Amino acid sequence: MGAGHAHRLYRHGHTPVHALPPHTKLAAAFAFVVVVVSTPREAMWAFGLYAVLLGLVAYHARVPAGFLLKRLLIEVPFVAFAVLMPFVAEGERMDVLGLSLSVNGLWGAWNVLAKGTLGVAASVLLAATTELRELLLGLQRLKLPPLLVQIASFMIRYGDVITDEMRRMRIARESRGFEARGVRHWGVLAKSAGALFIRSYERGERVHLAMVSRGYAGSMPVIDEVTATRAQWSYALTLPLTALVVCLLGWTL
């Protein structure tokens, strides 16, 4: 985990949010999501306040609204599921614009949309202000099982390696005049997928042998020791603690 690794969700900046140690941001984001999920769905005003809190984080991190909204498109499948809930759920029904909708289904759809959107937004902000390498160091600092951290590290790196290999194979096919236009070309694509699997497997073996020859014995060396001061923890936990106050008000009001 010593080499840098950029990702598309990350937005380079020099803000107080970017400067926070990664494990403090991971803990804050996780605690915020737990609080949001624990909020009663009937407290609709609470979810509006949560959105305001995330907006303040985005403002201090200098993450534009367009950047955030574009990344929120990843939850479209969940939105489609939520839209169907009022039509298929059972229980008391009500008429809305001539449509018979389930009351429980409407509440369920709202619950999925509100909590899902806030959770995805918090994750996007975390990724936008923290590099992947720092996220892995943060997970390591939070005492996540080392094997899981290594698996995540290898997945990130070899995901890009395989993607780049696919790009080169596509360019090679196109340079020879190949263009997939129908079912009759599926055979060529299947052979390409098989070749990609073999190349990836062979590369994995070569990398493993190289690691073993350099002394790898099941654990990666810790190159950077990430620490956080009490002030940094306080700054990072401002979001989940404020959200917790809102959640408690949502249960009592």
Brief summary of the model shown:
This protein is mainly alpha-helical and 253 residues long. It is 69% helix and 3% strand. The protein has 2 domains: 16-138 and 227-252, no CATH class; 145-214, no CATH class.
Structure characterization notes:
The longest helix is centred in the middle third of the chain and has 30 residues, at 146-175. The radius of gyration is 23 Å and the shape is globular. A hairpin with a 2-residue loop joins strand 1 (93-96) and strand 2 (99-102). It contains eleven helices and two strands; from the N terminus they run H-H-H-H-H-E-E-H-H-H-H-H-H. The chain is 69% helix and 3% strand. By secondary structure, the protein is mainly alpha-helical. The chain folds into two domains: 16-138 and 227-252, no CATH class; 145-214, no CATH class. The chain has a two-stranded antiparallel sheet.
How many domain units?
2
Mean pLDDT: 87
Write the element-wise H/E pattern from the N-terminal end onward: HHHHHEEHHHHHH
Low-confidence stretches: none
From the structure provided, what is the oligomeric state, counting identical versus distinct chains?
A: single chain
Outline, from the CA principal axes? globular
User: Which sequence of strands runs across the widest sheet?
Assistant: 1-2
Keywords: Cell membrane, Membrane, Transmembrane, Transmembrane helix
Main location: membrane
Transmembrane segments: 43-60, 72-89, 109-130, 233-251
Membrane topology: Multi-pass membrane protein
